[in-house]
C-alpha cells in the first residue's frame, strides 16, 4: 500500500484538494476539486459533473504529470498545519462508472509516485516524503 493508514484517515476526513496539471505548451493549471481514494487501484480518483470537458482532463490526457495537495490548518494557536501531497502520473479515463448519478463517466486517476505528508501522523515530526 502506497499510503500510510494515517494518510488514508486524513484524506477520508477532507473533501477538497488542489490538482496541478500542465498543458502541452508548458502552462501550469491548479484546480480545486473533490476526490476519493480508490482502494481497489490504490489511486486518487477525481470525478466531476462534466469532467471530460475540463481543461484539467485535457491536460492529463496530453501529458499525465500531476501533483495533488490536500491540506488544512488544524489549529491557529498553537499553529498546526497538516496535509498530503501526491506527485504522480494520472490517466484521463472515459466510460467509467461514476460514484453518483449526477457525475459524468470520465475520471482522472492519479497513480502516486511520491507522497509527502505533514501533521497527519501524531508520532511524526516535520515532513515525511517517500517514493512509492
From TrEMBL:
<dbReference type="InterPro" id="IPR012349">
    <property type="entry name" value="Split_barrel_FMN-bd"/>
</dbReference>
<dbReference type="InterPro" id="IPR011576">
    <property type="entry name" value="Pyridox_Oxase_N"/>
</dbReference>
<dbReference type="InterPro" id="IPR052019">
    <property type="entry name" value="F420H2_bilvrd_red/Heme_oxyg"/>
</dbReference>
<dbReference type="InterPro" id="IPR024031">
    <property type="entry name" value="MSMEG_5819/OxyR"/>
</dbReference>
<protein>
    <submittedName>
        <fullName>Pyridoxamine 5'-phosphate oxidase family protein</fullName>
    </submittedName>
</protein>
<keyword id="KW-0560">Oxidoreductase</keyword>
<feature type="domain" description="Pyridoxamine 5'-phosphate oxidase N-terminal">
    <location>
        <begin position="4"/>
        <end position="102"/>
    </location>
</feature>
<dbReference type="Pfam" id="PF01243">
    <property type="entry name" value="PNPOx_N"/>
</dbReference>
Amino acid at each position: 500500500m502506497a499510503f500510510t493508514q494515517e494518510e488514508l484517515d486524513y484524506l477520508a476526513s477532507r473533501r477538497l484538494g488542489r490538482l496541478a496539471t500542465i498543458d502541452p505548451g508548458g502552462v501550469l493549471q491548479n484546480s480545486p476539486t473533490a476526490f476519493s481514494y480508490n482502494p481497489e487501484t490504490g489511486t486518487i480518483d477525481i470525478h466531476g459533473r462534466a469532467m471530460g470537458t475540463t481543461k484539467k482532463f485535457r491536460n492529463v490526457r496530453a501529458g499525465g504529470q500531476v501533483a495533488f495537495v490536500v491540506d488544512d490548518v488544524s489549529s491557529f494557536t498553537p499553529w498546526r498545519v497538516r496535509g498530503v501531497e501526491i506527485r504522480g502520473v494520472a490517466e484521463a479515463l472515459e466510460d467509467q462508472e461514476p460514484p453518483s448519478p449526477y457525475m459524468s463517466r470520465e475520471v482522472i486517476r492519479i497513480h502516486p509516485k511520491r507522497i509527502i505528508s505533514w501533521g497527519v501522523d501524531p508520532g511524526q515530526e516535520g515532513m515525511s516524503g517517500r517514493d512509492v
